[in-house]
Amino acid sequence: DTEVTQTPKHLVMGMTNKKSLKCEQHMGHRAMYWYKQKAKKPPELMFVYSYEKLSINESVPSRFSPECPNSSLLNLHLHALQPEDSALYLCASSLGTGGFYGYTFGSGTRLTVV
Amino acid sequence: EDQVTQSPEALRLQEGESSSLNCSYTVSGLRGLFWYRQDPGKGPEFLFTLYSAGEEKEKERLKATLTKKESFLHITAPKPEDSATYLCAVQGEKTSYDKVIFGPGTSLSVIP
B50: nearest CA in chain A? Predict the structure, then answer.
């Protein structure tokens, strides 16, 4: 298995809703990432988990809450989002830290906040 | 602060018309430079890692080169399926090992 699987592919949520994004990989990668990407912009790093521990939080608002239950799973819990949070949310994994082996990205969750 | 710029912003080529994309970077000691390809609505796909000036990597019609200030992605005899956004990313020595900085990308369209 050489994929990163993200669910759901599309999500529409209201500003008072609570939802979660899920990411799964079975490649034995020990670093996992959440990125946010707006249209025609590059991916922006949000969170990094290295060996199941949060190693980077890029000053992301607390309405985004990451969780890494085990080495294969990564969740992003969403609560009280704003319309400007609408974007493509990408999960990625890598064999080790540093990105030197390349990140494997999922296809993303297209999030719309209404 | 590490910075990455890419040019051109968009490029249209006829099928078979070779060209190059540019990635210019400013980092305090380069650990690695990375090229990715992104298709619309998909996540980026890893292409290459380059570590030091003079290094070259090839994959099918793509060849990436690296100097001390920039990298080029050369596309030889492109086909329509090469149409995508090409992203360059860097990691500098003063940046966490877990973080890379992406450039804005070059949108490539190859016309049959």
Answer: A100
Q: What tokens appear for A20 in the block?
A: 């979660």
The answer to whether the CB of A34 falls within 8 A of the CB of A109 is no
The answer to whether A48 and A31 are in contact (CB under 8 A) is yes
Question: Over its length of 112 residues, how does chain B's per-residue pLDDT go in tens digits?
Answer: 889 999 999 999 999 999 999 999 999 889 999 999 999 989 999 999 999 999 999 999 999 999 999 999 999 999 999 999 999 999 988 888 788 999 999 999 999 9
Within an 8 Å CB–CB cutoff, is residue B87 touching chain A?
Answer: yes
Which chain B residue has the Cα nearest residue A87?
Answer: B41
Q: Is A103 touching B (CB cutoff 8 A)?
A: yes
Q: Does B106 touch chain A (CB under 8 A)?
A: no
